[in-house]
Amino acid sequence: MTVKAMNLSSPSREEPEINLTSLIDVVLLLLVFFMITTSFVRESKIGIRLPEASSVAQIEAKDESMVITVTAQGTYLVNGRSLLDNQPDTLERALKMLGGDKPGTQLTVSADADATHQAVITAMDVAGQLGYTEINLATVQLEIQ
User: Fold this and answer.
1) 66-137 fold
2) Could you please report the per-residue DSSP string of 113-129?
């Protein structure tokens, strides 16, 4: 009788394998979802409340004050005189000619209600570049009922 020895050692274990394929698929799907639903462009919104003139302060008109009138079509009038065109260079030459060497005098910009902001800003910019330090905006008093 032969005696066989029993093999009592445990069979070699295989290391458990973690499958990351499905986890990577889920993460990529979430990434695509968030990229599509997120807005990357943020528009800046600034709340601007424009002033209203409920009362008009009486200002003494000086003889040396100049008035730039901006019409609804964007043309300029300097002290009631029409200019050849509405170019900033033409407005600058007219202000130099009528204002002389006194750029520190008072200047009033009177704009039509339908005039563009750009035309008004251009008139103020030209006056500021010429050295006018007092630039007033003419307003009309609101009728309160």
Assistant:
1) Nucleotidyltransferase; domain 5 (3.30.420)
2) TTS-HHHHHHHHHHHHH
